[in-house]
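LAB NOTEBOOK - FOLDING QUEUE
OPERATOR: T.R.
BATCH SIZE: 2
PURPOSE: Compare the predicted structure-token outputs for two unrelated chains run back to back under identical settings.
PRIORITY: normal
REVIEWER: second-year student, initials M.K.

ITEM 1
FIELD SEQUENCE / FIELD STRUCTURE:
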Amino acid sequence: MTYNRATLQKTSRIIALITAISLPVIGVANQSLTANEQTFIQTVSKQYKIPQAQVTDIVEHIHYNPDIIKKMTTPYEGLSWQKYRAHFITTPRIHGGHFYQTQHANTFQQAYQQFGVDQNTITAIIGVESFYGKHTGSYNVLDALGTLAFHYPPRAKFFQKELQQYIVLSLKNDLPITTLKGSYAGALGIPQFMPSSYNHYAVPGKSQQAPVNLFTDHDDAIMSVGNFLKDAGWQRNQPVACSITSDKTISPTLVSKNTKPQHTLAWYAQRQVSSACTQSLNPNTMAALVNMGNTATPDYWLVFKNFNAIMRYNPRINYAMAVFQLSQAINVDRQHG
């Protein structure tokens, strides 16, 4: 078969057109992604030296979950202290904490020696966070972090950073990034660490060789919680909180606006704010007065620096008080066998 010049030119144009259509267009953004998502991809790729195509593929796997937004706007910590306390200070959690300490006694001793954090506090945090590893979350972590990073403006900046950290964590540890389960806020494993905390505070327990595993290794989890609290300002052998029961009327004006220690125990004692607990402490110890009740039925507590260290884990006063009271209950349960 022979071809004339016109036929060959026409065929060449057709081939060129087909080739142009079939080849990917380099440099053109994926139109299905928002501007925020595209910026995020470029930032992560540049900052962590991850191929842009790989980050894009991860972001494209995010599925928006409206239930996560609902959970975020109605947090459990928003309940009254009485309801919140009733959920966490329970017989199963108390007995479970005692048993947990028995199972991991050597690791708790190691954590105390290395970080100065007592076993009751670490146990209580793990008890509140995941019921000692039994409840680590049922939400898709990528969906949770992606939903909050790109669809929850009040905290978008925070969750975009956590999504970055999750990508780094998953690639570094070869985790199943698109299927891993956690909390509705993207918290992970036995201690429910956010990805940034996992990357910064996860340390090994008994096994110094294997990668730190906060999903199933309780020794790693215990040591990592201790490491976190030490960095948060935990003070070895210092108090967390003291209940204040007084026959004298305490002025509501003495209640602190936050939990940051503001005055000495001596200062509070001069204003009839004291108890057997506070009287056993150095009068120069700094504290803040909080009311866990209300004006009609107050429930006054003096809280110290270690209370604020717990709040670094979760910045809600209900959370920190639940951890403290659970730790006390576990201690009593252990002492009574």
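ITEM 2
FIELD SEQUENCE / FIELD STRUCTURE:
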Amino acid sequence: MARRSHGGGGGCGIARERDDGAPGGGRPVAEVVKTARQGAVALLTLNRPEALNALNRELLTSLAAAIGQVATEGGLRALVLTGEGRAFAAGADIAEMRQMSPLEGRAFSQLGHAVMASLEALEIPTIAAVNGFALGGGCELACACDWIYASADARIGQPEVNLGLVPGFGGTSRLARKVSRGWARELVLTGEPIKTAEALRIGLVNRSFEDPEALLAGALETAQTIAKKGPLAVASAKRLLVEGADADARVSHAMEQEAFGAVFSTADRAEGMEAFLAKRDPRFEGR
């Protein structure tokens, strides 16, 4: 039976997949976080379907290792994060948490925060493909990605107060940056999840898909589109969007001016402009 969850893996090389989906080279995937690579796109899949991908220490540690591998592996230009089975992640593992002392609870929160921060800090764009439940820690994990796609039957929320808890993996801050402060407060303080249609309406979800298969295909398609763009420009633009959001307008404008000038020193900028004028596809090399 699936563990009840409130809301918050062994690392390995990002295994390549052939175009037909058959496994290519690389080490076998980790048990609780499956890793795959499709061209320049990394795919990470939470793999505790029997527990609705509840976030325990093992899964969080494995996910941290997988994110670290993505950060250091060359040639990756986008990441898709999803869950195996009927859930993205139904939250933190209550069966593991129920006996924690205050110090252990704080350490668990610190682990979750570290994982979310490492995901948020990736230079490449990240897409959460939310199939089914994304509650508590699952919602926080999705919010640590750059944006969220969801299946039509998804349920998203921060139900911690229903268990006498508070969000522990960054939900009180990241959720308020995804949606309005009013909506963030309603979701956290009522503990009531919302359906995909409502999440789409308030801007928490970017796109809705009919079923999990269409969801994953759509997320990968967007990731592959990003992979064709200039990687240095994409990384710089993401940094401006993230850092500029919390900066004074004058500071963010100065950052943008500096970044705009900096890309003129790159071979990718020259290639992009030459390709545009020659009416051909650019061949970006990330330099």
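REVIEWER COMMENT (ITEM 2): Residues 1-12, 17-30 have pLDDT under 50 and may be disordered.
FOLLOW-UP: none requested
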